Fold these 4 entries.
Entry 1:
Amino acid sequence: MKLYLRLAWRNIWRHRRRTLIIVLAMGLGLAMMMFYDGLMSGFDQAIYGNAIKVLGGNIQIHAGGYSSEAGQDPLTPLSDDQGVVTAALAQPQVLAATRRINTGGLVSSREGAFAVSIVGIEPEKELAVNLAAQNVIAGRYLTAEDGDVIFVGKGLADAMGVTVGDRITLVGRSTHEQTRNRTMTVTGIYDLGMPDVEKGTIYISLGEAQSLYDLNGQSTEVAVVLKQLGQEASVIRALQPVLPGYDVESWRTNFPELVAAMETKNGVMDIFSIIILGIAGIGILNLLLMAVYERTREIGLLGALGLKPRQISLLFILEGTLIGLVGVAAGIVLGLLFNGLFRQVGLDYTAFSGVTDFMALISERIYPSWGVEKLPGRALTVAIISALAAFIPAREAARHEPAEALHHV
Amino acid sequence: MIKLIKMALRDLGRNRRRTFFSALALALGLALLLLMASFIRGEMDGAMDTTIRLQSGHLQVRAQSYDESKTSLKWEDLIEDPDQVAAQVASLAPVKAASPRLFATGFAAAGNHTTGVRIIGIDPLSEANAPYREGLISGDFLTPDDREGILIGRPLADKMGLNAGDQILLSANTSDGDVSEQPFTIRGIYSTQTSAFDTAVVFLPLGKAQALTKTENHASTIFVLLNDKEQTGAVVAALQSSNYALLTWTEMNDLIIQTENMANGFMVLFYLIVLGITATVIVNTLVMAVFERTREIGILAAIGMKGRRIMAMFLAESSLLAVGGILLGLVLGYLIVAYFTSYGFYIGDIYGSSGSDFLIYDTIYAKLTLGDTASLTLIAFVITLLAGLYPAVLAARMEPVEALRAEK
C-alpha cells in the first residue's frame, strides 16, 4: 500500500500545472463551504450568547409535557421545584439554578399594548446570573418582598412611553381559567441592547407571580446557568435520569424556528456542496482520463511486470483521492484566510431584527467562526467524490491488455 | 470563420467523453445557479406578495400620529369616520378596494392555554379581506353585525385544541389604556398558509372590535389594494392634500427589500465561486488538449497559420463548449426549477414569529424570470470564454519548430 501511495503521489505531480488547477477548484469549493459553516456558526454563537442572556439560563427544566406546548407558557407547576434545584446544583458544572414562573400576558398603557412573557424570578438568587438585573439603567432591580411592581426593558419602556414610577396594566392568567388584571408600577428599566427582545419580556418577583397566578409556593420552571458555555448536552444527560417526569431542555427548545431554519438551510447547503464538489470532481475525472491515455505504455509495462488489473485501478483511485486531499489542504488555507478576513470586519445584521424572533437576538455585528466545525465531514465528502471521480479512469486503465498497451504509440 | 468553427467542432469531437464531461461541469454549475436564483426570487417575491396581500396592502392611510409599533388606540392616533374616508379613497380609479381596519393587542385564553394575539377588526364584506375568507377551512366567515363571533387561524386553533363553535376568552387594550375582556365564540378557522400570520392574528368584525376597545367609529388604518402596484405613486399624489399619513408598500416592506438586497449580494459571491470552479475545470481540459496537440499546432504554424488564428481556433473551441454546456445546463436547470415551481419546497415554520414584518408561505415556489436566466447565461458564457483565453494564448505562443519536435 505504501508503495502505491508513493507512486500515486509522484504521478500526480508529473504535470504540476493541471494538478494545481484542479486543486484550486476543489479548494475553492471547500473554502466556500467553510465560509458558509463559519457564517452559520457565527450566527448561532451570536444568537446563543444573547438567547441565554434573555432566557436567564442555558438549560430549562419544566414539568413533563411542557415543551409540546412551548409558546403557550402553560402554568403547569413543577411537582418538587426545590428538589429540582438541589439536583441541578449537585452537578459540578452548574453555577446557579433558580425557580421561575413563566407565563404569557399583556401589558397596556394609554400609549399602546404589547403581548409579553411575564417572568417571575427570585431576585436575590438571579442577581449574579441575570443580565437584565445587571444592566439597570433607571430605577432599581426587584427584591423578594416586591409586590405590584415590575421590571421592564428599555425597548418596552420607550415604546410605551413609560418611565420609573409610571403605572401600567398587566393582564395575565391564573391557574383557574380566569384572567388577572393588575395595575403595576415600573420599578426599574434594564437595557440589553436588543429593543425587539426587551419588548417581549418583563420581570416580577416570584412571590408576586405566585399570588397573581394562584401558585402558592410553586414555580413552573427551574433555570439553570452553567459555569461554562458548551456543556449543556452533558449536563442535560446527567440530569435526565435524576429527574424523571421532568422536561430538561436546552435553550434551543425555546426557539423552534431557529432550529428549523438552521436545519433547512444546512440541508440545502449540504446538497449544493455535493453538486459543487461534484463539478470539481469532473475536473479530476477529466485529468485522470487524460493521464490514463498518456500513460498507456506505462500501464502496459506495469501489467507486464505482474500488476493485476485491480492493483492498477487502485493506483488511479489513489491518485484521484490524493488530488482531492491536496484540494482539502488548499481549501483549508483559503477558507481560513477568508474567514480570518471576515472575523476582522464582521457582518452587520442588526437591520434584520424584525424578520423573526431569533433574529431579534442579534445585537451586534456577526463574526464568523473559523468554519472548521464540519471540516471532517466536508473533507470526507471531498475524498469520496474524488475517489468516485477516479473510478471511470481507473476501470479504463485496468482494461488495458499489457501486450497491446506496450505497443501503443 | 465557418472553417474555424468546423475545425473546433471536429477537435471537440475527437475526445467526445472528455468534451461531454467538461460541458457537464458547466451545465451542472449553471443548473445549480438557476435553481438558487429561482429560489431567492421565489422566496422574495413570495414574501412581498404575501405581505402585501395579508398585512400591508399597497397603501395605508393612517392618522399622522399613529405609531405602528405601539398599536395605540388613543382617539387622536386613529382615523375618525373611517367608512367615509375609505369610500373617498375607493372612489379613485386605480383603487381595487379600500377598507378600514382596527388593530389591537390582545391576549387569548381557552382551557389551560393562553397566548398573545394581534386583533384586527375588519369589514367582513370588503374585497380587501378576500384572502382570509377564501382561506376559511371550517365554520363560517364573520358577518358585519356579529357581536360574539371571532375568526382564528389554524395553527392557533391546533395549539389551543379549539374548533369552530368553541369559546375563547379575549382580552384587549382599550383607548383609555385599560384592558377589557370578553368571551367570544369561534365562528370559523382560517388558514393563509403563512404560519407567522395565522398564529398571531385573530379577526373581529370592525364594529365589535371598536366596541371592545372603546374606539367608536374609529379605525387604525385604511387598507388599500390597487389594481396595479405600479400606480401607487399616482394614488399617493391624489391623496396628498388630505390630513393623513400615507404609507406605500415599499415603505412598509423595507425589511423585505433589504433582505432581498442582502441575499442578492451573497448570491453574486456564490455565482462567482461556482462559475470559478466550473471555469477551472474547463481551463484544465483545454490546457490538456493544447498539450496533447502540441505537434499538431506546430504543423499548423509551420504551414503558415498565424498565432492569432490558432488562438481564435481554441477560443472557438471553448465557445462551442460553453454553448453546449449552457444549453445542457438550461435544459437541466429548467427541468429542476419546473419541478420546484409546481411542487414547491417546504420550508415549514422558519419565519414563524408573531408580529413579523416578513410573511411568507410555508412552501417556497421557485420562480425563474427571463432576466435571471439571461444574466446567468451571459455570466456563465463570459466566464467560460475568459477561462478559454489561457489555453488559447498558450497554444498561440508555441514556437513552431519546438512544437513540431515535441514528444508525443
Note: Chain B touches chain A through 72 residues (CB under 8 Å).
Entry 2:
Amino acid sequence: MSEIKLQKSKTAEAGTDFDIDHEDVPFNKLTLNVVHPVSKQEIYIEYNKSDSKDVLVEKEDGTYVEEADVKYLKESWEATEYSFFLENSTLRHAEEGDLGDGVKNFAVPKSTNTYDEVYVNKKLVRTDYNIGLWQSDKLIEEVEKVFGEDQEWKSNRFNIIGTYTAHEDAPLRPPYTHEKTYSWYNVYNYPSQELLDEFKVPDVGYEYHVWHSIKYNTVTGKKQLKLVIADNEYTSNYQKHPDTFIPRPEVPLYSAKYRSFFFAKIFNEDGTEADQYDVFFVTTKDIMKEFCKEKGLDFPMPETREDDFVWIYGLVYDKNTLEIKQVKGYVRYPTEEGEWL
Amino acid sequence: MATPSSGAISLNEMHVEAGGSSGTTCSINDADIRLIADKSSGATASWNDYYSRAADWSSTMTVGDGTIASSDGYTTTTTRYRGYMTSTTISATAVPSGGIGSMNDYQDSDYLANAVIDVLAIFGDQAGSSSNFRLQIFNGTISNNDTAFKSVVVNGTTFNRTDASFGQNNNADRVYTIWTWSVSAAVPDASSDAYAPFGVANVSNTITFRRSR
C-alpha cells in the first residue's frame, strides 16, 4: 500500500484542507477532485470530519492518505452517481394497475416500448422483449406449443419474455442446456406461495424482489424458477445466519444506492437448486472493465455498445467454488423512435 | 452585515450586528453580543473573537413534499422529498416536478455568500431507513468554512456544517455548492406523515443559520 502526502489544494486529485468543527476543534479534511461518470464535469468534494478522520493519517511532516482509500472513495462516488443518473432517467410513478398485490413504493419504466439486450464476452446472448411487443407473441407461441397457457403471460404490462443465443465464445449460461429456452419474467409481483410450492422452494425467510422468472426449456419440457433475493443481514452475515447466508465471489465496487446489489437462485421443479447463482450490481463501465481485467474475465459489452447505458451487470458463479462462469451486461433500448435515456 | 474580518472593531459594531441600535448603551457581556461569538456570561473573550461574526439568520419555510420514481436495473423505488426545492432547473439534485415548498427568504448577505438557496430538503427511498439532508446553493466557488455558516437549525434539529460532505461544481449549467448530511430516519409513505427534521407537509417550520455555534 502506498501513501500520498496531501497538499492543501482545490485542484489536486486528492488534497487536504483545514477546518474547525462546531466545538471549535481544528481538524484536517480530505478533498478530492472527481469526474462525473456521465456529464464528465469536474466536481470538487470535501469529506466531513468523521469520514476524513477515518482515512487521513496525521504525521509530523504532514497529512497522508492511502492511495487505495482514495481509489475506493472515488470509484464508490462514481458508481453511485451513475446509478442516480440511471434512476432519474428511466422511470416514472406507478399508476393504478402497474403494481401487483402488496407491492408498494415502486416506480415503473417510462415506456413499455423497449427491449433488453444481454451481452456476454461481447456477444448478444439474449434479448428480452416487453410482453406487449409483437416479438413477444412469437415467443409465447413457442412456449405454448410445449407448455400450453402455463401462465397469464400479460398479467402485467411490464412483463418481459426472451430467449437465448449461444456462441462458441459465449455459450449458454449454466444451468441452461438449450437455446430454445424461454425466460418469462413476471414483474412487479412477489412470487406467490402457490408458485413457491410448485417448485418446492424451502421457506428460509428470504426477502424476494418484486420480479421472478420461469424458464421454459421447450426441448426437455422442463421448467425452472428463478427467484431474485435482496441482499440483507440474512444473506450477508454468516456468523448470525449461516442457514440463509449466500456465498458470493469478489465483486467490483458498486453503487451505494439502496437495492442496487442482489442475488438470484434457480430452482428445479423437484425443489433442487442449481449450482449456479447470479449476483447483480450497478457500477460504471470503467470499474467493470478494470475488475474484469484484474480477474481475467471477459468484459461483456462489445466496443460498439459499451458507451450505451448498461443498467446492470451480473456474474454467474458456482455456489460451491465461487468460480465466476460468466459476466453479463444488460442494456435497454426503445423499439422505435422515442425517448428512453 | 457581519463584523469586520480584521483590523479595528468597535463594541458598537458588535452591538449593531447583534441587533442593537447604533450608539446605544451596551457591554461586552450583554447576552445578545455574547451570542454572536458564542460566549457564556463572564467568559474570557478577546476582540479577535468578534471578527467575522454575524447575527443568526432565520427564515420560515412552508414545508413541501414530493416524490420521484427511480430505478436501478429491474429494481425500482420511489424517493420521497420533504422541505424546499426550487422549481428552477438545477444540476446534481433531482427535484420533483415543479419543485416543493417555499421560504420567505432565500438569501442573506451574511450567509452562504449571499447565494440563493436552491434546496433545503431531506430525501430518501421509501421503505428505506436512511436519508440525506441537503443544502444546495446557487454558487460554485464558496469556501466551506464558518463564514458560509457554522450550523443550521431546522425545526429544532441542528446540523453542523463540518458533519456534512461538501460538493461543488462551477461548470454545471447552474453552478452549485452542496452540503449533504447522512440521516437515519424512516422514510414515510405519505405527505401527511412527519419526515424528520421536518414535520408533516404544508406546515411552517423555522430555519435558522448560525455562524457562531
Note: Chain A has a mean pLDDT of 91.
Entry 3:
Amino acid sequence: MKLRNAFLAPTAILMAVTMLAPLAIILVYSFLTRGAYGGVEAPSTIENYTRLWDPVYATIIIRSLWIAAAATALCLILGFPLALFIARSGARKNLYLGLVILPFWTSFLIRTYAWMFILRDTGIVNSVLQSLGVIREPLPLLYNSGAVILGLVYGFLPFMVLPLYATLERLDPSLLEAAADLGARPWDTLVRVILPLCAPGIRAGAILTFVPCLGTYLTSDLLGGSKTVLIGNLVQNQFTASRDWPFGAALSLALMAIAIGLLFSVRRRGEELL
Amino acid sequence: MKTRRGLALYALGAYAFLHVPLLILAVFSFNSSRFAVWQGFSLQWYRAVADDSNLIESSVNSLIIAITATAVATVLGTLAAYGLWKRASSWLSGSLYLSLVTPEIVTGVSLLALFQWIFRFLHLRLGMHTVILAHVGFSLAYVVVVVLARLRNFDRSLEEAALDLGATEFETFWRVTLPYLGPAIAAAAMLAFTVSIDDYVITSLVAGVDSQTLPMVIYAMARRGVNPALNAVSTLIVFGLGVLVLLSERLRRA
Amino acid sequence: MKPYFKVTRRTFLMGAAATAAACSRGPRLNIFNWSDYVAPDTISNFEREFGLRVRYGTYESIPEMLAKVMSGNSGWDVIFPSAEYIQPMRDMGLLAPMRHDWLPNLSALEDQFQRPPWDPNLDWCVPYMHGVTGIVYQTNLTWTPRAWSDLWDARLTGKLTMLDDPPEVFAACLKTLGDSLNSSDPAELRAAQQRAIAQKPLVRAYLNAEVRDQLVAGDVAVAQAWAVTSAQAIAAAPGKLAFAFPSDGFPRYADTVAILRESGRLEAAHNFIDYLLRPRVAAAIVQTTRTATCNGAARAMLPEDLRADPVLFPAAGILARGEWFAPQSAASQRLRDRLWTEIKT
C-alpha cells in the first residue's frame, strides 16, 4: 500500500491547494464585509447570504436555471436522433463520431465568436435575408436570451451526443426486432423501448450539459451583450466592477450548492462518483 | 427504409449545424472587406495576425502553459488514478469530482482569492506560475477520469500474477499496468492539453502581467466587436487543432 | 507508450528553456493603458531611444484596471487612471510620487492642467488627455438627439448603447433629473437608478470603446460615448456619424498617467512620462487617437482640422455646461456599486 499512498500524495496535495483551500477562503470571505474599493474587511456578517433572497437575484438564478434547462432540452432533442444515426451507421461509426467530436476540440471561445459573427446586424443571416427581400430592417438576433441558448446548444451538443451514443450503441438489436415482431410501429418502439433503455445515457448527457450551462460566463457575456446577466456573469461582476468580494463569494457558494444539489438528486445509489 | 433515410437527412442537417459556422468564419477570413459581404479574396487579415506581436507572444505563452500543465497533470493524474483503483479514497474522489462540477468562474475567483491572500505573506505576484498551477489543478480531474475508466477494464489478476512471480509493486505497475494504459494516457494528455489551451475564465483571473494567453487576447478582440483578423486567428487555430487531432489519430492507430 | 513520455519530457525542457531565455532579456517597463490611446510607433520609438523593452497591456474600463492593480503587486509600472481616481488611489497607497526634476517637459502642459482640481501640485499624476461624454448618433436618423433625456425615446429600442461604466450611466441619469453627476445623496441616486432600469429595455448592450466598430458598421444608431470613441468613429465613417453635447449637462473627464508605488523602475517610468510630454510625440499621438490632449504645446502643432475640431476642442461656452467627475466617498461608492449591480441584473 505504500506505493499507492505515494502515488496519491502529489494529487492529494494539489487538490488541497487548488480546490479545497480556495473554497475554504471563499467560504470565509462570504461572511466578511467588502472593502471600499474591493477586497475584504474584518466585520463578519451574514448580510451577503440574506441579500440572496432579494427578488433581484432570485430573478437571475431562475433565469439561469431556465436558460440552462432550455439549452439542455434542445441538446437532448437535437442530439438524440444524431446519436441514433451514428449508432446505426455500421462501419462508418468512428468517422461520424469523429465529425461530432471535431468541433469540440476547437476553442469554445472561437465557436462562440462564430455566432457573434453570424448573428450581428450586418452578419450573414441578416445580409442574406435582406438581399432576398424577406426583411427590410436587420433582425436583432444578437444580445438576447435566444442567442445565448443557441450558443450554449452549439457548444455543448457534443457533450450530449457522446453519452447518448454510448448507451445506444450497446442496445441489443434483438429487442427492437422483438418489438417489431409484436407489431409496434417505429414511433412506439422509440418511445416505449429505446428511450427507457437509454435512460442512463440521457441522464449522463443531461448532467454533463446542464451543470456547465448553469455556470456559463463566456456565452452570456459575448452573445447576451451584458444585458442577459446570468449567475456566472454576476459572480464575475462582483469580483471586478462591483468590487464586492464577499457577496461574490456568497453567490459562488450558492451556485455550487445548486449544482451539487441537482447532481446528487439524480444520482442512483451505488453509482460511483468518478 | 423511410426512417433510415429520414435519420440520415437529419444527421446531415445536424453536421451542417456543427460545422458550417466555423466554415463561415474561415471563408470570411479571406474577405477583403470587414463586413459579411464578399468583396474579393485577400490575405490582409492573415498578414495583420502575423504582424501582431501581442498575438504571437500570447500564443507562445499559451503553448508553454499548456505543455507544462499537461505534462504535470498527466503524470500526477495517472498515478492518482492508479492509486484510486487500488483502493478507493472517498475524500480524494470527492474533491476531484468537486473540481469537475465547480463552475469555472467559481474556481477562478476562489483561486484568485487564495493567491491574493498568500501574496500578503510571500512577496510574489500573479504570473506564469499561478496560471500553470491553476491549470494543473483543473486538469487533474479530467486525467483521472479518463485513466480510471480504462483501469476499470483491466484484469487485476494480471497484476496478481506479476506479484506472484516476484515483481515489486512498482515493477508491476511500470511493466504490466502502465503499458496497458498507454492509449488512455495519450487520450488524457490530449484532453488536458485542449482544456488548458482553451481556458479563458480561470486564466484571465489569475494571470499576471507576463502571462497573457491566446484566449485572453481573442476575448479582448471579440469584445471589441467583429474583427476579420479574429476570423483569421480562429481559422488558424481550428486548422492547427484539426491537424493535431488527425496526427494523434494516426499515431494511435500506428 | 514510451515515445509519449519522451516527447512530453523533451518539449517540457524546451519550454522551460524558452521561458528562461525570455526572462533574461531586459530591462523592462510594463505599461497599462486604455486601448487605442497611443500612436502605432509611440511605444517602439520609446523602446529604441531608451533601450527598454515595453510590455504594453490595455484595458477597456477603470474597474478592470483597478481590479488588477488594487492588490499592490500586479506587476504594472505605469497606468493611466482617470482623474477622479487619483485621490482614492493615493489614499490607498497605490501611487508613487511624481518627481518633477525628472520631468523637464512638464511645462508643455496647458495652463488649466498645470494646476488641475484633482491634484493641484501634480504630485501624483500628469494629465494626459481630456474630453467629455456625449451622444454620438447616425446622421440618417429622422430626428436628432440633443439631450440625455432623448436616449429614453422608444424609437431607439435595440439600437441604443450606453457605456459599461457605472459613473457614466449614473451621470446621464442624474442629469436628466437635473442633479449633479457627482451626487452622493441616496435619494437622488436611487431615482437615477430607476431611470436606468426604465431605460434597460431600449438598450442593446452596455459597451465602452467597443461600440466604435458597431457605430461604423451601422449596427448601433445612438450611443453614449466618450469623445475619444466618437471622434475615432466619425473619422472612420465620414459624414455618417455626428456628436452632440447633451443640453442637460455632461461629464468632463481627464485621463492621467501615474506610476504605481509597487514599481521598481521609477526612473524608466518617469522617462516614459516625460517622453509622452514631448510636444512632437503628443501631437503624433493625437493624430492617431483623435483625442483632446492636455499638452498645450502639442495642440499648437496640430493640423488645422484637428485643432479646430468642434468635438475635441469645443467652444468655452459649451464646455461650461460640463461638470468634472469628482471622487466619491467610500459610503457613496458602496451605494453606487450596489445600485449598479441591481441595474445590470
Note: Chain A is about 70% helix and 0% strand.
Entry 4:
Amino acid sequence: MKFLAFVNFYCRLIQKLMTVILTIMFVSTLIMISGRYIPFIPPFFWTIEVVRFGMIWMIFLGAAVALREREHFFVDIMPVKYGKNKNISGILYIVYAAVILIFSYIYIVYGVIYFKDWCLVQHSEILQINMGFIFFSVPLCGVNSFLFFVAELVEKKLGIERKEVQE
Amino acid sequence: MSGGTIGIITFAILVSLVFLRVPVAFALAIATIPALLIDEKLTPCILINRMSVQYMSVILTAIPFFILAARIMNRSKITDKLVRLSLSMVGSLRGGLGYVNILVSMFFAGMSGSSNADAAGIGSILIPAMLKQKYDVNYTVAVTACSAVMGCIIPPSIMAVVWGATLNVSVGGLFLAGILPGILIGLSQMLITYILARKRNYPKYSEKISFVEIAISIKDAFWALLTPFILVGGIIGGIVTPTEASAIAVSYSIIVGAFIYRTLSFKDIVEEIMVTAKLSAIILFSIGTASIYAWVFAYYNIPSYLVNSVEGITDNPIVVLLISTFFFLIAGMFLDAVPAIIIIAPLLQPIAVAVGIDTMHFAIVCSVVLGIGLITPPYGLTLLISSKIAKINCMQAMKDVGLFFILMLVIVIIIILFPDIFLFLPNLLKK
C-alpha cells in the first residue's frame, strides 16, 4: 500500500536526520573543547547553541519515531491472564489511542500557538536565529505522532502485526 | 480548588494511565493537562514551554554522549578484554565467573554511565558462559542484574547528570560521591558470591593464578582501563565539564575501537549513532514531560504543603532519609530512575533541606536507592534485561536477587548513618 510505504520511508528518513543531528552535536562539542585548549583555534560561542537546538530537534523527531516503533518505556503491572484477554487488551488499546490523539492535538494546536506567539518573535542570543526555526519541531512532533498513529491503525486493519519492544 | 486536591487528581491520573500501560512519558504529559486548564492564568502552551526550558540546559547533552560511548565500547568488544582481565585476576577462585561478572561490571561502570548497557553487554557474554559451567540460572541472572547496578552509581553516571540538572547539584560532586558506595556495593556482592560459591560448590574457571596472563591482559586492556581516569580526572581537575567529558568519552572510545583495537568499522559507528539518537530522544522526552509535572506541583505549592506536614511529624534527618528511601524504593519498582528523579526528588529535597540534610548526602542516598530500583520487579530494567538473555521469567531469579537486595539496603542505611565518610570525596571538590 502506497500510504504505508510512504510512512515507512518517512520514518527512515527522520532517523537518518536524527543521526546527522547527533553527529553535528558531537562535532560542535569537540570544537567547543578544542577552542578552549588548542591555541590556534579561537573559542567559538555558537557551538553551545548548535548543541542545544540540535538536541531539541532530535528529541521531538525521536519521540514520534519511538511511538511508531513502540519503544517508549511502559510499565507492565497487569497480570498475564488479563493481558491475554481480548476484551481487556481492546480497552487498553482504546486508552492508548485516546492518549496519543490528545497528545497529538495538544502538540499541533498549542504547538502552533507556541510557535507563532512565543517563538517567531524571538531570536537566539548568540546566533540570532529566529527561534521559530527551532520550535517548529514541536507542532511537527504532533503531526508525526498523528501520522504514525494512523499508519498503525491501517496496519491493524490489514492485519500487519507490530511487535512491542522494550529494551 | 486547593493545591492539595489538584496534586492528588494529577497524581491519580498519572498512576491510572501508567497502570493501563500508557507509555510513562505520555502519561506524565497528559496527567498535567487538567491542572493546566483549571487555572485561568495557565495554558497548555506551558507544557511545551517547560519542556523547551528544560532542554536548554546543556548538561543534558551528556546523556546521548554517554550512551553512545557505552554502545561503542560494547560494539568494539572492549568488554571482551575486560572479561579476559578479570578472568586472569579472579578466575581461579571458587565461583570464579561470579567474581568476574562483578569485577567486569565495576570496570565497565567506570567507563560508561548506563546500567542497561552494562547488563546487556556483560550479560550477553557471561550469562551463556556461566550457564555452560553449570552455575544455577537464578544466581547467574541475579549477579548480572545486581552488579550492573554499579553502572549508574560509579562515575560517570547518567543518573547523576539527570539529578544535577534537575536539582541544581554539582554533577562533578555527584560523580565523586558515587565512587565509594559503588565500590562498597561491588565488595558486598563479592561477599555474597563467596558464601554462595562455597555452599553450592560453584566451579573454578582456572586452576591457579598466572601472573604472566594478568600482565598480558592488563597490557591488552590498558587503553580501555585508562578511560575512567581521563573522565573523572578531567572533571575533578576542572579541565572539562561533564558534558564535554561525555563527548571526550565518545571520541576516545572511537579512537580506541577503530584505530588501536581495530574492531570498529565506520558502518558500526553510524549504526550506533542512529540507535543512540533514538534511545536518548526517548529518555530526554520523558525528562521533558516529567519536568512539566514537577513544575505543576511547584506552581500549586505542593512541596511546601509536604514540608509543613512532614515537619509536623518529625524533624529527625535520619527519619526523613528513611522516608525518602521508602518513597524511592516504591517509585523504583514502577518507574525508570530518570522520571522517578524528576517527579519525586523536587518534592522530597525541600523536606530534606528543611530538616538540615546536606543536598549531596540526600543525593547519594537516593541514587543508591534508585540503583536498587533497577533490580526490583515489575519494572527493574537490569533484571529484565538479564532474565531475557537467560530466557527465564524475571520472578524466578527473585530468591537470589533478594540476597543482593538486602545487602544493598544495608549499604543505604550505612550511608544514611555515616554521612561524613561518604561526603569526604565530594567535599574535596568544594575546596
Note: Chain A touches chain B through 55 residues (CB under 8 Å).
